[in-house]
Every structure is written in structure tokens, then in C-alpha cells.
Amino acid sequence: MNLYLLRHGDAMEAGYDDAERPLSPLGENQAAQAGLALQRLDVFPDIIVSSPLVRAKQTAMAVQQILQKPEISISEYLIPGTDQRQLLELLNNISRQTVLLVGHEPLLSTFISSLVSGSMSARIAMNKGSLARLDTPRPIAGGVCSLRWLLTAEQLEKLLR
After folding, report:
1. What are the C-alpha distances in Å from 71 to residues 44, 47, 68, 115?
2. Fewest CB atoms within 10 A around its CB: which of 58, 91, 126, 159?
3. 79: domain range?
């Protein structure tokens, strides 16, 4: 499986319950850049799986709109604090070849760490708008995946110039 992980774009800080915080104008731009970068890299996920939190769903929808194709599935397993075994089980039940997960920190970085090293202690920085690619065998298990690349929002922006 080709697994892509995207951290939602920058979100509004004040005046919202955490689950309802929308993307800021910067976050909207970061989400669009992620979609355009995927398009430029000829990456067209078969499915996008997103956290139900507003900022993640908005990020997923921006990518979907640019790529004009993949369905979006919402999963509670992408909310911070979720047991990563549930996310692993979800992925192992997806029969698609190319999957994009849209979620939050620290879940994404610890999930990458677990998949690549078998522990959650590797220091991986998934800043807002960052996009990572992992190659994963079937079934997916901890410590057997390869991190192919990790790009920050700033690097995605440079890729599009």
C-alpha cells in the first residue's frame, strides 16, 4: 500500500470549540497546496480517510476538490488520543492501493514512528500542512514500513513554483 499522511492546515485559534475550529486563510492555502503537490507528483489516492474534526475535513475536501476524484471517509480513529491499533486495523481492512490519511498531531508523527521503527519514540515533525509518504506491506504492522519522504508546507509551496 502507498500510504500518505497529511496534517491539516493551520486553523483558527480563538472563538471556537476545538472540534469546530475551521482552517485559517493560511490553512486553506496549505490544504490547496497539498492537493496541488499530490497532483504534480501524480499521486491520486483511491480514498481519503479524514478525522471528523472540522479543520481536517476541510483539508480533505480541498484535496478532493483539486484531485477531482477520491471519496472521503470519516474515521474517529484519526482523532488525537486514539489507540493506534484501531487505525492500523482500519488500514488493514481497506483494500485500496493508495490511501491518504488526514489528521492531527501528535497522532500522525507517532503513527509514522510506530510503523517505521516499531516504537513511538522516533522524533518526527509533522507540522501543519506537512505531507508524508510511507510504503507499507500487507498486512501493515509496526516496524516494517518505509518512510519514503516527508515534506513541510514550505517545501510543498516550493515544489509548486
Report:
1. 11, 5, 9, 25
2. 159
3. 2-159
Angle between helices 25-40 and 54-67 in degrees, nearest 10: 40
Q: How many CA atoms lie within 13 A of 45 on its CB side?
A: 30
Task: List, in sequence order, every residue forming a beta bridge with 73; answer none if it has no partner.
Answer: 49
Residues 6+ apart with CB under 8 A from 92: 138, 139, 140
Q: Indicate the DSSP class of residue 14.
A: S
Count of domains in the chain?
1
Handedness of CA 148, 108, 119, 85 (dihedral sign): negative
Instruction: Report if pTM > 0.85.
Output: yes
- CATH code, 41: 3.40.50.1240
CA distance 77 to 51: 7
Tens digit of each residue's pLDDT (9 = 90 or more) over 62-113? 999 999 988 999 999 999 999 999 999 999 999 999 999 999 999 999 999 9
Count of C-beta atoms within a 10 Å radius of residue 93: 8
